[in-house]
Please model this.
Amino acid sequence: MELSTQDVLITEEETDILQEIMNIAFGRAASDLAEYIDIFVILSVPYIKLLRSADLPPYIHEEIKDFDKVSLVEQNFWGKFKGSAFLVFPADSGKKILSLFDGSEEHFESDPVYEMEKETFREVGNILIGACVGKIAELLGDVITYSPPRVVVERSHGSVISETLFDKDSLAIVLRTVFDFNEQNISGYLFIVTNEESFGWLKTALHNFLEQYEC
Amino acid sequence: MVKKILIVDDSPISIKIMKSCIPKDQGYELFDAANGQIGVEMFKQINPDVTFMDLTMPVMNGFEALQEIMKLDERAIVIIATADVQIRAIARAHDLGAFSVIKKPPSKEKIAAAIAEVEETLAERG
Model:
């Protein structure tokens, strides 16, 4: 269920600041990936949503429902800004992304493609999630530690986000961006979820970010 | 001489930040537009001396708006202010006629330097 801003403690201005910070952070992450593999990432306007944690898995499942099966990289992060990031691709993008790394157009049946795809997703996840969350933290004056990424390859979209991952009674802010790898016809989603524990710090940090520009 | 400055960006916070970075003591007239399409219309109406343009926007993105503005006035000075710092994005902006590119978040120093460069160009043009 979507919550009104009155219920939840995050104002329209704070949402706008967070959206701009996400925009800057994902732009930087895309640039890092584009330097690593020769690709052009088409960015879209990020979207911020406040939800009850219990509604997070259905929200994410609804967002990615057009993908029959998905591959996902999940990484937790903690500092004052604390939460989880989910990078989601349609399952059939694995081989395309793999070819961007190793340059080959096709792989033989004998190749251990599954493992290679998994490693490729892990690498893309490390770059995009690390750069994006890292930049958000940097802009807000925080330092982040990451868990090792968890990679799930080719799973039904309804089962990739664990129902038990979040405290159902708390609130969560979701930062979502959609992106396309131009020339490769690959779309993906990045969700960054932070929970109620970080709200107090986040609100102060967002105002501090804006204050540095106020005269 | 720079008198009118147009800022095209879908983020009200980004517009606020840009405005705060523009020197206050020069008497610039500031205008803003919430997407590329509105930006092109405003460009036609006010004929700004310099336009700061975001790239990632709904309705009409910054690349398209830049293209439209350069069609209207090939000497238009459009500075791209963007979070999209991919080499190919920057190269594309230059190919379409952007005067320069500023990475977000901007700073007072970056904006002042960019406007000084525009002043020099306008002085050279006479």
In short: Chain B touches chain A through 24 residues (CB under 8 Å). The mean pLDDT of chain B is 96.
